[in-house]
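Q: Fold this one first, please.
A: Sequence and structure below.
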Amino acid sequence: MPDNLSQWHVVEVQGGKLALNERVTPYDLNTALFTDYAHKLRTVWMPEGTSAGYGEDDFDYPVGTIISKTFYYPIAEDGSVLRTDDYSQDFTQGHAGSGLNLDKVKLIETRLLVKRADGWQALPYVWNDAQTDAVLEIAGDAKRLELVSESGDREAFTYVVPDFNQCSGCHADNHAKKAVRPIGPRARHLNKGYGYESGTENQLVYWQQVGYLTGLPDLAEVPHNVNYKDASASLDERARSYLDINCGHCHNPSGPADTSGLMLYGAEQDMRKLGVCKPPVAAGTGSGDRRFAIVPGSPEESILNFRVESTDPGAMMPELGRSLSHEEGAELLKTWIASMPGNCS
C-alpha cells in the first residue's frame, strides 16, 4: 500500500495537469452516484495481456486491475468550489484523456480499487493543498468547503473522505460474501457513448477494442441505465436509474440493506419490494413519522423522499458519501412518485 498516489503511476501531476499514464483509460457512467456535487475523473488500467470477462451484472476483472476515481470541484476566482454540471473547463484539451487542468479545479481525493489475488482492496488518497500529490489516509479525512451555485448562492459544508472500512461498507454489495467489488463499471452503467481523443465510441465496444473486455455480446443484448437528466427517457427509467446507482448497492436481495425488504436495484420488478405501500421494518427518526416507503401520488407522505432529502445523519440515505441533499435527484423522485396512480388505503 504505497503512501503516495504518485507511486501507483496511474494518474500523476505533470506540467500543471493531472495526467493519465499510458493505457489508463477514462470512463463515465450513465447516471453517477451523487457525492456533494463533486466532479469525478474515473479510470481503469489492466496489466498488459489481460482483460475483464463480460458479465451482465459484474465483470471478471483480472488480478492487477486498478480502478481510480478522482473527486474534484471546478473553482471560482475566490477559491470557492463551484456547483455546476459543466465539465467543459475541467480538462486541458476538452476531454478526460488530456488530463485535468489544475488551474481550474480543486482536487479532493482519489480512491483506488486494486484487484489482488484474494480480492479487491479499497484505498483512499487525500490530495495536499499544493495539488502535487495525494497521501494514503486509511482513517479518512474531512474538508471544510464552500459551494457556490451558478446563481451565486453559497453553502458551507464538510466533504467527508470515507475511511477504509466505510469504503468496504459500500463496495461489499453482497452481505453474505462481504467481498469488495466495483459498483460503477458494470455493463448497464458503462453502456453509453464516450468522447475519447479518437472520437465518440460506445465504452464497452472501446474496452473490447483496446483489449480490456472479452465476451461482449451484441449491444442490443446489453442492459443499460439512462442518464437521470435525459428528458427523452421515460420518468420511470430516469428514477429507476437514479435509485439503482445511488441505493441499489445496499438495497438488493444480497446487500447490506436486505433486511429492510426495500429493493431499489435496477432489476427489481415487484412494486411492493420497490417500496409502493410498503411499511418500514422499524419506525423512528428514519421514517419521518411516515407510514410507507412510497405513497403513490404523495411524495410528501413517502419515507423515500424524506430520507433522500434529509441531511440528518440519523435519517438520510445514502448514509455515506454526502453531507448535502441532491436537489435535482430529490426533485426527480418527487415528480416520479407524484405521477404514480393508486393509493395505500
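Q: Good. Now the second chain.
A: Here it is, same layout.
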Amino acid sequence: MTLIRPSRRDILKLAAIAPGLALPAVARAGLGAGAAANPAHFRFSIGEAQCTVISDGFFSQPVGDLGVNADRAAVEAAMAAAFHPGEGNYAHTNHLFVELGEAKVLVDVGSGSRFFDTTGRLVANMEAAGIDPASITHVFITHAHPDHIWGIRDDFDEPIFPDAEYIIGEVEHGYWMQDGLVNNVAPEDQQFVVGAVNSINAEGVEWTMIKDGGEIAPGISVMNSFGHTAGHMSLRVDSGGKQLIALGDSFAQTWMNFAHPDWYNGIDADPAQTVATRNGILDMAASDEIALIGYHFPFPGVGHVVRDAGAYRFVPAVWQFRG
C-alpha cells in the first residue's frame, strides 16, 4: 500500500495551528452543543425543485478509519486544520427531500432504531418540518449500509413509507442479495450483510431496479458513483438550468475529500474506484458549477466546489431567508 506523505502545504498548515493545539480544549475555536436543540431541517431551491434537507441525527466515526492510505500525521493535520475533534469525526446524516412536479422523492431512509442511539430521527424531523411521510412518492436508496437503509421499517417491522416506490441500483441490489455473501465477508462485516438483506427483504417493500442515467421522475435521475460500495449511486436534480447532486457516501468528509481526493477510508469497498469516482465528480461539479450535498457533511451539507492549488475546496452555500 502506497503511503501519501504530507506535503509542504500540510506541514505549514500544521505548524500554523500548532500553538492552538497546545492550548486547553476550552481555549480552542471549536463550538460545543447549544443548551437547546437546533432546527433539523433546511430548505432551498434548485430551479423549480423545492428541496429540504432533513437530519436523521449524528454519530462519530473513528479518525483511524479516515485516509487509511495516507500518512497519519497528514491526516491528523488535515483534521486539525478543519477544527475537527481529534477523538472522532462528527458525522451528520443529511437526507435530501425533493419536490418537483408531482414527484416527492426522499434519498435514503436513515438508521431507524437499529444503529446508534443518536440516529433514527428522520420521521420525527420530517413531521417537525411539516412534511407528511405519507406524501412521499419515491424513496431512492444510495446504498445498503446501516445508516442509509436500516430505517426502512418501523419498530413493528412495517415500512415507514408504505405507499412510496422504492428504488435501488441494480448493481447494489445484486451485490447484497448474492447467495452466500454473509459467509464470504470478514466476520466484522457479517452484520452489515445481514442488516442489508433484512432491509431489502422487508415485508411490504417492492423494489424498482435502476441503472446509471435512469430517471426517477422528470428532472430527477441517478448516476453511478461506485466504490464506497459495489453499486453505490447518487441522485441528480436538473431544473431551470441548475443542478444538484446528492452524493450519498461517495464523499464522507468535507475537508479531506476535497483537499485530498486520493485519500480513501477503511470502509470504502473498492479504494481505486472510490478515488476515481470522487475525482470525476469533483471535476464535473467544479467545471459545470453543480451544487453538492454530502450525507455526512456538516448540516445542512449543501455547497459548491472550486479548484484550489491542484485539488479542490468545498464552499458552503449561503443560507437565504424569506422576509
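Q: Anything worth noting on the second one?
A: The first helix runs from residue 8 to 21.
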